[in-house]
Amino acid sequence: MKRTDYITWDEYFMGVALLSAKRSKDPNTQVGACLVNTEKRIVGIGYNGFPRHIDDDVFPWKDAEKLYDSKYAYVVHAEANAILNATTPLVDAIVYVTLFPCHECVKLLIQSGIKEVVYYADKYNNTESNIAAKKMLDAAKIKYRKFVGVDFIK
Fold it and tell me: Can you give the pLDDT at residue 153?
């Protein structure tokens, strides 16, 4: 008889996204993303960090008044990195992401062809970026839902 206490697909893919987030060197926000095709195969993974060949010991990891003195000018978001790392086209793919995507990442996800966003946390809910992101997802008829399953973070 087979065991019945195995994790769901959602738990598996969100677990991969959460593990990927652990690669981020950002001291405040670690985000991971996992792209999954229609055959339940992982086709892209990413986490937030600086572009390749940018020394993350020289560039800032902080917030600052001037954009060029802050991490926001330099960090590539997890979703963008996952898309750039994708091994196949993303038409009808699902993205599992540890933090609800910002409006900029939602544009990339829509353009890449994903059909669903599964997110772990939505800590920026009702911010301007979050409202714009959800407005675009609704307009593009892309489903989004909060992850329900094993509480990986205790």
Answer: 66
Length of the chain: 154
Taking the C-alpha atoms of 91, 131, 71 and 68 in order, what is their torsion angle to the nearest 10 degrees?
110
Q: Is 11 a catalytic residue?
A: no
The CA-based angle 127-128-134, given to 5 degrees, is 90
pLDDT of residue 150: 81
Global pTM reads 0.94
Is 143 within 8 Å of 118 (Cβ atoms)?
no
Q: For residue 84, what pLDDT is reported?
A: 98
Catalytic residue chosen out of the listed positions 65, 79, 104, 128? 79
Intervals of the chain under pLDDT 70: 153-154
Residue 34 burial class via C-beta count within 10 angstroms: exposed 0-12, middle 13-18, buried 19 and up: buried
42, 34 in Cβ contact below 8 A? yes
**Cβ atoms < 10 Å from Cβ of 86:** 18
